[in-house]
Fold:
Amino acid sequence: MRHILSILVENEPGVLSRVAGLFSGRGYNIETLNVAPTLTEGLSMMTITTEGDEAIIEQIVKQLRKLVTTLKVVDLTDVKSVEREMMLLRVDAEGGKRAEVLRIVDIFRCKVVDVSLDELVIEVTGTQDKLGALIHMLQRYGIKEIARTGAVAMRRGMQE
Amino acid sequence: MELTGAQILLESLRREDVDVVFGFPGGAVIDIYDQLPHYPLRHVLARHEQGAIHAADGYARASGRVGVCLVTSGPGATNAVTGIATAYMDSVPVVVITGQVPTPLIGNDAFQEVDIVGITRPCTKHNYLIKDVRDLARVIKEAFYLAATGRPGPVLIDLPKDVQQARCEYKYPKTIKMRSYNPTYAPNPKQVAKVAEVVRKAKKPIIYAGGGVIASTAAEDLVWLSRSQDIPVTATLMALGCFPADDPRWVGMLGMHGTYAANMAISHADLILAIGTRFDDRVTGKLSEFAKNAKIVHIDIDPTSIQKNVAVQIPVVADCKSFLAALRRHLEDAPAEAGPPPAERHAAWLEKVAEWKAEKPLTYAQDDKVIKPQYVVETISRLTRGEAVITTEVGQNQMWAAQFYQFLRPRSFISSGGLGTMGFGFPAAIGAQMACPDRLVIDVAGDGSIQMCIQELATAVCYDLPVKIVILNNGYLGMVRQWQELFYAKNYCATCLDVAPDFVKLAEAYGAAGFRVTDPAQVEAVLAEAFALPKTVIVDVVIDREENVAPMVPAGKSITEMILV
Structure:
């Protein structure tokens, strides 16, 4: 099963390689990874999505906590949470295709962030499912390039 | 007080009560060596960095204190990596200081530059590259704290040459608090209560002790638990000595080369108290067959050890000593209501365990022609009355030492358990002898392993260390040969060491003493003479070439499927 882990770490050199090395050294897989500073100076938040059964995820969470540079690890799969990922797509939009592509942009509540004679760059935010659906819809028009941020996630205010 | 980085390092080592540093100089640490004579530290100059790091490790295992190793950048640092990984696998507190090229050169492929922080990230508990001399004092304090607390382990500090030369105001922190590192020492009282309850109800309990018992100085508490509750004890290689081998409740080591009684008992128990151990594959054998009938209680200070290999019913994250003290309070305050006392409740079980012990004890047959290695170890055990510090190399020598020496107290058996590092035993013996100048320190070696760090003979002789090396010489890489014999149709590829040095002459060449024994009748007399000599000695014992270690559980089999001869 897919899990989203939120990892609060000391923002210091090598911390990413400690986390990445833990995954590769123990044979776990990182599906997506996102790192950025938090409001607290000196701390960064990593969001990692990974696959594994309960035992493997438990081991990953414990191993992450064991790193001296880790302050907190939360498996957001265990709590109510929101998840978003941003993606940029360069789509072929020549001639007759353009109107159709723009309709899809509308339906998916995407934004066109760059336009040229024969292509559009589209920005979209959503869950992995939504991003997947958009890719599926646009494939027939020709997707030339994709850049994705990987998931970021946060627990909801109201927990049961 | 303004000091240079080199002075800050040495002054901080002094404040951490470090009395000995094992090292090897080089261009990137000359500034430290330049200041070394001004500080009250003994420096032991190894002849290879691997020797230095194993010696620091042996010192730590023998004393319970943090071992310190100082090496230069590049090859100095990489030569230490095997020893760092050895200490990491066996949870030994070591602080390693490596020199590094000056900070402006880092990343330039400078002479003797290597990214040792990157290389050792997976085999240290933590590591640091210092770029600002003002961080140095705090980092040293943190390094010693990290190495010695929680689950102990090696910590590496990479110190560039310009940082050693830079100056700053020196203030050594008195206390330490790290927001991201807070090991759990005290057990959850609810979990302790649950353990007490299952201990009171068990009919066939066994204690399975690991290295954590020794690391947390909990051996006495463990002895109390076993004796007061009448519970038999087995232990891992790392825990030999945590329970006296002359106690009737001792069933011996378990696992691949464990005793028949230990493997049978753990497989038939209804309650396993796993204390400070990590269910290594050499212990459990085939996981799906391991201890199928038992409820398992697992105490470990490292949460990642729990539920890693084996599903346990009562996990307790705690330091072994704190846990055993808490359990003792429970058992003493509220003795079992109405039920029979432990001796009665476990009577049938204890009888069964005694039967297994009697049925298939560790054994060998010594004739008057060829020396059996087991006889050599038993003789060492008898001559030293279990009071020596025994280090081992890796392979058959290690297993015979573990099986046939009667360990009576903790920190008497020093061996590379997790990583299985050949060449460990002799330098570790040097470190142990530095830690325990009054004890007899003996490296039980093989003719293969001893050649991996043989250069340390110069170190032992140079510092007048009366370490004894007993080589169980069978002219083979014996353990690999044993596997080839049993599982690879006797294809003895690359395991025959028919070209070997004359170890007696070799000892003499280094200024040590050398003896050779080929006659079983001479073993005891020669060993006694060697042990009485106040100098470094090699005893080359020519043993039965194809003697095997038994019992043996083939890799991947259940530990009840033992090859007994």
Q: What stands out?
A: Helices of chain A lie at 15-25, 54-66, 97-107, 128-138. Strands of chain A lie at 2-10, 30-37, 43-51, 70-75, 81-92, 111-115, 119-126, 143-148, 152-155. The domain at 2-78 of chain A is CATH 3.30.70.260 (Alpha-Beta Plaits). The mean pLDDT of chain A is 95.
